[in-house]
């Protein structure tokens, strides 16, 4: 433990971030820990901050949580087999000293400030394997902001992450996740969520920065009367290859879901495979895959799929890919906007960036990133 880090009660860590680290993290949603219910920051291969300001929230390194709470052992690899694929096996092999966050929102807690957690990869060509576990206990309510980033000096590296989220009966969560990796990096993200009876989960994922390859896979199971709403905002400039795979299982009556992906290619490739499974009568689900191409280079592949197992499962999907509407562009330019401003306004509207789920500062950042990528500035 270095001089800038000291341990405090209950496995928490109060550490100092450099100005550069703060600037990097601000790009993916970080705010001063004093304005958050809890904060976790992981840098390279250690936790720099694990601090809670709310008695209803515990946050600590996963390794400390395994020693502190016996039940955490049952949560770890509880939603995914450690041999599910080569990447997950690789993370499991490094779990002799687990690296990641454990976040516990306690039963009945109504958390008024957001909980934030972030990963930094600061060493060029480094390998980072993380495992995060989140438990939102019975009747708890929380907003969460998470993200991952690298400094501008890091172009290459490899990151593999596993996230397991457990929502107990009646729990509610609203979350935003933002990633900003290096241009030549390889990233593999695996997320698993189990939603108990009567739970509510509203999630937004923002994948904007250029990257050589990013595979993101998520698997969600909903029990009776659980409701999940998710949106992914995906941008691929030239040289970027993204694969997004989602599987949503409506496993009990009353479970409902809406999963929408909004994808923009400015020369990169986006592959979106989404599967919705109606496993019980009285379930209702929707998949939406909408793509916008800004040039003749690159491609968008959208494959929504439905699997109805039980009679009475109501499932639907729609998919579309197109270019910017020339009539809308002409109308905005006639109203006084130059072409770039008009295009950016159309893109912003397509991505639904007026959505209250996304902080205004991040909405502006997303628009700026698109403009920079189109001009070769990223």
List keywords for this structure.
single chain, 378 residues, alpha/beta, ten-stranded mixed β-sheet, nine-stranded mixed β-sheet, 7 helices, 17% helix, disordered N terminus
Give the topology:
Elements: E1 5-7, E2 13-15, H1 19-26, E3 38-43, E4 46-52, E5 57-61, H2 62-68, H3 72-75, H4 86-93, E6 101-105, E7 115-120, E8 127-136, E9 141-149, E10 158-167, E11 172-180, E12 186-195, E13 200-207, E14 213-222, E15 227-237, E16 241-250, E17 256-266, E18 269-278, E19 284-293, E20 299-308, E21 314-323, H5 326-334, H6 339-350, H7 360-374
Parallel strand pairs: 3-7, 6-8, 7-9, 8-10, 9-11, 10-12, 11-13, 12-14, 13-15, 14-16, 15-17, 16-18, 17-19, 18-20, 19-21
Antiparallel strand pairs: 1-2, 3-4, 5-6
Helix pairs in contact: 5-6, 6-7
